[in-house]
Write a structure and sequence with these properties.
- This protein has a 7-stranded parallel β-sheet with strand order 3-2-1-4-5-6-11, with helices on both faces. The chain has a 3-stranded mixed β-sheet with strand order 12-9-14. A two-stranded parallel sheet has the order 7-10.
- It starts with a strand and ends with a helix.
- α1 crosses α6.
- The chain has a domain of 188 residues: NAD(P)-binding Rossmann-like Domain (Rossmann fold, 3-Layer(aba) Sandwich).
- The chain is an alpha/beta fold and 303 residues long.
- Helix content is 40%, strand content 17%.
- β1, α1 and β2 form a beta-alpha-beta unit.
- The protein is globular and about 55 Å long.
Length: 303
């Protein structure tokens, strides 16, 4: 198949691109910067604001996988532009070029749009996809980890120092390895009555997810440490977010908006929303996946 992919140079997108090419698909991938030639990949220069580039991306494609999005922005307008307007622009281009199928990568945060500007923008993007006039499937991943990730990387870096500040102890979260997520996105590309117009919440298969303490200690184990886990209140996390903003400016990883959903107690996937087991199931146990990720960070001089 010919598949149009947005976000192909990002963390999830690179894993997806690797799997798509390996599976023999022809890929047309959106990129802001010049990329080295790659067999099976046609790079299209542009971004989600460039409607001409999006039409070129979608021309002749049998499906589109929308991975690109904004996970960190200084204000709500930044999330709106990247996650809502960008999604609308892609839908319009896909519809104009006759693309019959769209697999949209959303977020579990869309379940609780009142908690953060990020979650609100992902929820609005989902509504656009549902009303876009194209056969669709929406995937809401939980926390994603794996090689090249810059978000959960912060936990690995903290574990190295033996002290891990975490959200309140009563919270639980699901996680998924990036390669398992990439396999799911490709598995959803062929249209069928079973997957059309469905919203899926995939994870690593761990029932009830992980407590913040369990996840922190497991990341510590992956790093060869037994870190001291300190659970911070929302007020404390907000102070840390302000300090991070002061020190790292726009590169800050802990933002006030992120604190809003980090402190929500339930980011465990809904059991009935998991993808059908005959279509996909996770293959990477989280302990082994976290260990391999820590090794990748070391080998690539991130740690």
């Amino acid at each position: 198949m010919t598949i149009a992919i947005t976000g192909a140079t990002g963390f999830v997108g690179q894993a997806l691109l690797d799997r798509a090419v390996k599976a023999g698909h022809e890929v047309r991938a959106l990129t802001r910067r010049e990329q080295p030639p790659r067999a099976g990949v046609e790079w299209v220069r542009g971004d989600l604001d460039n409607r001409a580039a999006l039409r070129k991306l979608c021309k002749g494609a049998e499906a589109a996988i929308h991975v690109a999005g904004v996970v960190n922005a200084p204000d709500a307008a930044g999330f709106e532009a990247g996650n809502v307007t960008g999604t609308l622009n892609l839908i319009e281009a896909a519809r104009h070029q006759g693309v019959p199928r769209l697999v949209h990568v959303s977020s579990l945060s869309a379940r609780e749009p009142d908690l953060s500007a990020y979650g609100a923008s992902k929820a609005r993007a989902e509504k656009l996809v549902m009303a876009g006039g194209i056969d669709w499937t929406i995937v809401r991943p939980p926390a994603i980890y794996g090689p090249r990730d810059t978000e959960m990387f912060e936990l690995f870096r903290l574990a190295r120092w033996g002290l891990m500040p975490m959200p309140p102890s009563e919270g639980r979260t699901s996680v998924i390895h990036v390669d398992d997520l990439a396999r799911l996105l490709l598995a959803l590309v062929p249209a069928s009555e079973d997957v059309s117009h469905q919203v899926y919440e995939p994870d690593d298969g761990r029932k009830q997810g992980w407590s913040h303490y369990e996840l922190a200690r497991t990341v510590g184990w992956a790093m060869g440490r037994r870190p001291w886990v300190v659970h911070l209140s929302r007020a404390s996390l907000e102070r840390v977010a302000r300090a991070d903003r002061f020190v790292r400016k726009h590169k800050a990883k802990l933002t006030l908006d992120r604190v809003g959903y980090m402190t929500h107690p339930d980011w465990v996937v809904t059991h009935d929303a998991r993808p059908p087991a005959d279509l996909w199931r996770p293959l990477i146990p989280t302990r082994e996946g976290l260990k391999a990720t820590a090794d990748w960070y070391r080998e690539n001089k991130w740690l």
